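FORM 12-B: Structure-to-Sequence Request
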């Protein structure tokens, strides 16, 4: 048990243990520096689980940047300019279906929310520039500490805006059912709320009322488009072994990739990286990084730049059999005990509790 996570602390401990020959670690720069200074004789291996986790984070950013590709195009969009009506068939213009404007348009709501996010981000960063910490920022702006930390540590305001825009509504899953019931003649909001709550809806009745209100002027709800997959769903599909992906999920992923060359390239790179991890082929890493850099995938390029800064350890991690896997359970248990005693005990008690539960 070390008293901190600083490079100096780790280096001092390693100098007392010259017998150490291999060090497996996560991607922390402090651990890399401490290991280099304290045990220059040891081989450093970047842990494969952490490498996969870092790649998954890059994939999530990529999917988020191309979330517009997740929605299936409308039928009118699929028809190309060269498509014509068959000879002898009269071209009938379909009667326009009135689509009521929602009480508050999606763009207006999003822009209003985006404006609030930008204002809050500016306020948090202003206090940060004055040298104030997260607790002081949360107290001064009357924010929850987790919220203050999110705004405090965000790389840019666009990162916060894009994440908020990708959130789904509690009502999304039930919209097709509401459209069908409304068109069947049931416009009683209380009845509809009861029905979807029986199906698992956990939102308010007011949300349902606001959503259905525009349809009352036309007496008809428009055809409900299929729900696009969520960001995390697509990330999971891309990161999974295609052979273990359920047929339905595989078909939905195939449709998304057909609409987005960037996500198709991402899936290809992920599969190649997974093969390197499975087969311990670290010798293929340089070629893989070059292929990623040749594509227009900023998040994956950033991931590759991080690998280049830690190339020796990453290559060793993808080549040698060593990993953090056998110890991650013990680390998780130690963190659990630490959180139980946070603010109420010191290191000596934590060390005893960990030893007694080992």
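FORM 12-B RESPONSE
SEQUENCE OUT:
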């Amino acid at each position: 048990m070390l008293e901190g996570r600083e490079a100096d602390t780790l280096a001092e401990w390693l100098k007392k243990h010259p017998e150490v020959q291999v060090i497996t670690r996560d991607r922390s720069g402090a651990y890399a520096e401490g290991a280099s200074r304290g045990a220059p004789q040891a081989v450093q291996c970047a842990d494969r689980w952490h490498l996969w986790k870092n790649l998954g984070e890059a994939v999530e950013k990529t999917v988020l940047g191309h979330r517009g590709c997740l929605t299936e195009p409308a039928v009118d969009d699929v028809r190309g300019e060269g498509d014509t009506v068959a000879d002898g068939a009269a071209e009938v213009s379909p009667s326009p279906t009135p689509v009521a404007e929602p009480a508050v348009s999606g763009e207006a709501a999003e822009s209003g929310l985006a404006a609030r996010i930008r204002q809050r981000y500016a306020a948090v960063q202003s206090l940060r520039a004055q040298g104030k910490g997260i607790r002081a920022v949360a107290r001064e702006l009357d924010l929850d500490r987790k919220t203050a930390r999110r705004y405090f540590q965000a790389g840019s305001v666009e990162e916060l805006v894009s994440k908020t825009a990708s959130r789904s509504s509690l009502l999304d899953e039930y919209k097709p059912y509401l459209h069908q019931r409304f068109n069947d003649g049931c416009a009683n909001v209380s009845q509809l709320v009861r029905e979807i709550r029986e199906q698992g809806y956990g939102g308010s009745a007011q949300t349902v009322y606001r959503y259905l209100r525009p349809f009352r002027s036309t007496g008809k709800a428009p055809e409900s488009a299929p729900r696009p997959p969520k960001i995390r769903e697509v990330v999971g599909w891309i990161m999974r072994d295609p052979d273990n992906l359920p047929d339905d999920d595989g078909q939905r992923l195939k449709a998304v990739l057909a609409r987005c060359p960037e996500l198709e390239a991402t899936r290809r790179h992920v599969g190649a990286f997974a093969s390197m991890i499975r087969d311990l082929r670290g010798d293929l890493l340089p070629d893989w990084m070059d292929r990623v850099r040749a594509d227009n995938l900023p998040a994956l390029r950033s991931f590759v730049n991080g690998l280049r800064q830690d190339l020796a350890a990453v290559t060793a991690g993808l080549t040698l059999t060593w990993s953090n896997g056998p110890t991650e359970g013990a680390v998780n248990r130690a963190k659990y005990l630490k959180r139980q005693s946070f603010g109420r005990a010191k290191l000596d008690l934590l060390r005893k509790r960990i030893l007694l539960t080992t």
